């Protein structure tokens, strides 16, 4: 890399693009040329800079100044005032975000998003300079066996970040023996309010390539499929570019880093079906069929893609694996809680001052997340509730604000961590309307294969519609619970088993709001 | 069509990719009976299997749609900040209901589950382009911008 006096990072993602990031970048480059700064200041495209809803965001280094909502008309001032004369343009500066080390143990907790927004996601060289493929190199150099890799991941206590929180090392160790096995990375991110995986795919694609590769090495698979939802066009392009670059450099294919390990990755593009986030539906979809979930057992670890042993892991899970292998299990256990080591990437949305993406240690309380990262509830309103985990999640109220959040802590509150989406609702929000939206979602996304879910989601929505309209009938609230309970017991996959969570939690905390709409 | 299909090995696992490509090549944004049959013949599977796959996923349509597809998000994060009234506004502005196509064949209005851009909610996609931080004015502007682009050829 050429040495420059300073760097301007421009975050390129879907949101920035629609705010005109390309025009801003062109204006910036041309202004730097005009001022004779083109050799001194380097402009780098990166993934998300962790500030969503802020338009085009620029970070100026070494100063560490972040600008938000930048338009082409602001460029001249930034270049002449800040880059030439060293005086940051105060009116564009992003409202201060926490810069001090945070989290339970006071350590800087970025593990998964370490490189997102820092490196150019389209540059293999920058990824390598930031530690990409070091874990694979360590394995080859030290002669670490696949069994030792599984053991390291087991010891780390890493649990699946797709929602269920199943221990990753254990899942890998359950993979049946066989000649041909597959790694499948689940990037079919569809839980409402969730976009953490998109920002990993867009911001640090080589991290995921290496994560899949390490999983492949651990379980003895030489082929990986990366299933990305069809709506994530930029993610698909960035990942394809990273896979091609890695293959070109000999980091994918035969004889990786001089070993006799071979691994390659193929991207599969989804076509709009929430249920395909369920691992067996996803497998059916890769096979080119309707995304109907399969009966379990057998689990994919025994009978998966084309009936071969298959490991399905979420994007965030796999993004944790390279640093674990690189730094060791005990390093990873230095973050988070005893039962859930490491960090969690959350999307924080709704009525907060700064909606966006954050990574905090497992065990961080909801209050800390909302106040320190989300900038508090917007417009000085009071907190009413949060829907955690998307549609398949649960409502929590103010009582839960100070409880440690991890897979186990939330379970004690009859809630779930799920996908890590946190939808914050202020005092004016209507829980009735939000629940109606959630039930509309389930009705729309039920795949129709099994009757309890197919008929149940329709019935739930029908009852909810009249409750919302103020025409609820006596017994409707109990009816919602009874139907959702039957679905939980009898549905084939988590989609039909989930509506009980938002329904029961909404009624537990806010029943009077619903009763007021019963005629 | 054959040329598009031959990018892929004739195997079931590429059916979704083939359907994506054929739909995109069709100006009316849908999978015609001929397209479905071409996939079936190329992969050598019954037509019913291709139709079974194509009808499962919300991104495919088996009936002709407008040249531009508007997909507005109706999931809770967008709903919370006013998506429902924007859907009504879109329908009124375009003089069609959700799922329908304008008489001139320009727009089809669809609702979608979460697009994963909740940081700029409420949000919609017009074809591949995302439009976020929607307000009544921005919705109408975005529609009219597409109309102007089309008129300019």
- The CATH architecture of the largest domain in chain B is 3-Layer(aba) Sandwich
Integer average pLDDT of chain B: 95
CATH topology name of the largest domain in chain A, in short, is Rossmann fold
Total domains of chain B: 2
* Assembly status: heterodimer
CATH superfamily of the largest domain in chain A: NADH-ubiquinone oxidoreductase 51kDa subunit
Give the termini separation of chain A. 70 Å
Biggest sheet architecture of chain A: 5 strands, mixed
Q: How do the strands of the widest beta sheet of chain A line up side by side? A: 10-9-13-11-12
Strand order of the largest sheet of chain B: 2-1-3-4
Computed over alpha carbons, the radius of gyration of chain A is 24 Å
Strand residue percentage of chain A? 5-15%
CATH topology of the largest domain in chain B: Glutaredoxin
Instruction: Point out poorly predicted stretches of chain B.
Output: none
- Count of helical regions of chain A: 20
Content of β-strand of chain B: 5-15%
Could you report the average pLDDT of chain A, rounded to the nearest whole number? 92
- Report the span from N to C terminus of chain B: 25 Å
Would you count the extended β strands of chain A for me? 13
What CATH architecture label of the largest domain in chain A applies?
3-Layer(aba) Sandwich
Largest interface: A-B, 56 and 41 residues
């Amino acid at each position: 890399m050429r040495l420059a006096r300073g760097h301007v990072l421009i975050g390129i993602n879907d949101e920035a693009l629609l705010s005109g990031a390309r025009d801003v970048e062109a204006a910036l480059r041309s202004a730097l040329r005009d001022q004779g700064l083109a050799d001194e200041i380097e402009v780098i495209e990166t993934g998300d800079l962790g500030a969503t809803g802020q338009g085009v965001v620029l970070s100026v280094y070494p100063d560490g100044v972040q600008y938000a909502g930048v338009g082409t008309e602001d460029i001249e001032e930034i270049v002449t005032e800040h880059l030439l004369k060293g005086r940051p343009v105060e009116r564009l500066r992003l409202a201060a975000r926490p810069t001090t080390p945070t989290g339970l143990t006071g350590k800087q907790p970025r593990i998964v998003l370490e490189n997102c927004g820092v490196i150019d996601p389209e540059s293999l060289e920058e990824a390598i300079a930031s530690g990409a493929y070091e874990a694979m190199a360590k394995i080859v150099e030290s002669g670490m066996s696949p069994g030792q890799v599984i053991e390291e991941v087991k010891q780390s206590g890493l649990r699946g970040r797709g929602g269920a929180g199943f221990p990753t090392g254990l899942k890998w160790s359950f993979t049946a023996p066989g000649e041909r096995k597959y790694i499948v990375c689940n990037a079919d991110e569809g839980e409402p309010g969730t976009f953490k995986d998109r920002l990993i795919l867009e911001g640090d694609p080589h991290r995921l390539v290496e994560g899949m590769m390490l999983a492949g090495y651990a379980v003895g698979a030489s082929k990986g499929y990366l299933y990305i939802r069809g709506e994530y066009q930029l993610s698909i392009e960035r990942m394809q570019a990273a896979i091609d670059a890695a293959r070109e450099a000999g980091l994918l294919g035969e004889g990786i880093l001089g070993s006799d390990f071979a691994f390659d990755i193929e991207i599969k593009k989804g076509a709009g079906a929430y249920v395909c986030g369920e691992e067996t539906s996803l497998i059916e979809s890769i096979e080119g069929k309707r995304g109907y979930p399969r009966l379990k057992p057998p689990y994919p670890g025994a009978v998966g893609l084309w009936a071969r042993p298959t490991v399905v892991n979420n994007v965030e899970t796999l993004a944790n694996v390279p640093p674990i292998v690189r730094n060791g299990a005990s390093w990873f256990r230095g973050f988070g809680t005893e039962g859930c080591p490491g960090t969690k990437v959350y999307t924080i949305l709704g009525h907060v001052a700064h909606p966006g993406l954050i990574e905090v240690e497992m065990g961080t309380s909801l209050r800390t997340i909302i106040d320190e990262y989300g900038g508090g509830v917007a417009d000085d309103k009071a907190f009413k509730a949060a829907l955690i985990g998307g549609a398949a999640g649960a409502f929590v109220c103010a009582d839960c604000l100070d409880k440690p959040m991890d897979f186990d802590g939330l379970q004690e509150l009859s809630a779930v961590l799920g996908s890590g989406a946190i939808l914050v609702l202020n005092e004016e929000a209507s829980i009735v309307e939000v629940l109606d939206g959630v039930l509309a979602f389930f009705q729309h996304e039920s795949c129709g294969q099994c009757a309890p879910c197919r008929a149940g989601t329709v019935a739930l929505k029908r009852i909810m519609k009249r409750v919302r309209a103020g025409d609820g009938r006596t017994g409707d609230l109990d009816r919602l619970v009874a139907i959702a309970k039957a679905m939980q017991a009898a549905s084939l996959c988590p989609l039909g088993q989930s509506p009980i969570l938002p329904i029961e939690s909404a009624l537990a905390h806010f029943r009077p709001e619903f009763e007021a709409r019963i005629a | 069509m054959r040329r598009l299909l031959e990018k892929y090995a004739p195997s079931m696992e590429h059916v979704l990719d083939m359907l994506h490509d054929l739909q995109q090549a069709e100006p009316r944004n849908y999978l015609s009976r001929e397209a479905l049959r071409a996939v079936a013949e190329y992969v050598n599977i019954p037509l019913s299997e291709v139709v079974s796959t194509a009808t499962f996923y919300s991104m495919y349509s088996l009936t002709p749609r407008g040249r531009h597809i508007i997909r507005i998000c109706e999931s809770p994060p967008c709903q919370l900040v006013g998506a429902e009234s924007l859907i009504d506004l879109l329908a009124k502005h375009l003089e069609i209901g959700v799922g329908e196509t304008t008489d001139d064949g320009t727009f089809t209005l669809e609702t979608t589950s979460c697009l994963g851009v909740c940081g700029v909610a409420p949000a919609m996609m017009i074809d591949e382009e995302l439009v976020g931080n929607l307000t009544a004015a921005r919705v109408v502007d975005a529609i009219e911008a597409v109309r102007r682009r089309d008129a300019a050829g």
